[in-house]
Amino acid sequence: MDNQLSAQYIYARVSTLKQNLEPQVNELTKSYPNATLVREKASGKDLRRTEFELLNEKLNQGDIVIVYDLSRLGRNTADLINLVEDWNKRGISLIVQNLGGSVVDTSTATGKLMFTVLAAVGQMQREIQQEKAQLGIEKAISEGKFKGKQQSQKTVEACKKAMEYLDKGLSKEAAAKAVGIGVATLYRWIKDNK
Predict the structure, then answer these.
(1) What is the rounded CA–CA span in Å between residue 51 and residue 193?
(2) Strand 93-96 relative to strand 36-41, pairing
(3) What is the DSSP track for 49-60?
(4) Would residue 152 show up in a list of annotated catalytic residues for this protein?
(5) Which residue is catalytic, options 6, 15, 43, 102?
(6) pLDDT for position 84
(7) DSSP letter assigned to residue 103
(8) What PANTHER family has UniProt attached to this entry (predicted)?
């Protein structure tokens, strides 16, 4: 396909609604001002993300996808490798900005090795973080300091209101629905506040 017909797409992703996309967007649009920007606020644990799936469906031979770093594309090594192999077959290139903006050419043995190692290192770092967090939780539990996720004041107020409905004879399900909380939240609040 003629390079003039190819398109560039910046894929910027953060995991939660509270996180800010702008640092990625600003960095990438400086280097690629003519690229189409695709923004997404969704977990990277797998590739089933609305904006990403829409982008992947419209990619054509010669197109280029630009990400700030590999973790913005995804966090699972196997998923990333399968994705890039699919893109190679379709003639789609990937640019990873924090690698100096060079094209990671995964059709070559060197490019494939570099991509695989970087994806595996990213996954290993996440697994180490998860292990450390779990060890910290276990230590806090053994010391009697772990209280789990704390409920917001709004949730506490809703649970208190739901308790009033329970006193008036409503079922737990109806009381929870009436105040806009999940029934599991109400059950947990009742258990924790006996």
Answers:
(1) 42
(2) unpaired
(3) -HHHHHHHHH--
(4) no
(5) 15
(6) 85
(7) B
(8) DNA-INVERTASE FROM LAMBDOID PROPHAGE, RESOLVASE HOMOLOG YNEB
Q: How far apart are CA 49 and CA 63, in angstroms?
A: 20
For Cα atoms 155, 141, 154, give the angle at the middle one, nearest 5 degrees.
Answer: 5
Please identify which residue in the block is written with the tokens 């109806």.
174
CA distance 8 to 127: 32
Tokens of 31: 């280097």
Over residues 63-109, the pLDDT tens digits come to 999 998 888 888 777 788 888 889 988 989 888 888 765 666 666 77
CB 40 within 8 A of CB 49: yes
pLDDT tens profile 34-66? 999 999 988 877 778 899 999 999 999 999 999
**How far from chain centre, in Å, is Cα 53?**
14
| Tokens 């003519």 -> residue | 34
| 93 strand-pairing partners | 64
Structure-token match 């800010």, residue found? 20
Distance CA 115, CA 193 (A): 51
Query: How are beta strands 36-41 and 64-67 bridged, if at all?
Result: unpaired
Q: What is the pTM of this model?
A: 0.59
| 151 in Cβ contact with 193 (< 8 Å) | no
What one-character-per-residue DSSP string does 9-22 give?
Answer: EEEEEESSTTS--H
Query: How many whole angstroms separate alpha carbon 104 and alpha carbon 113?
Result: 10
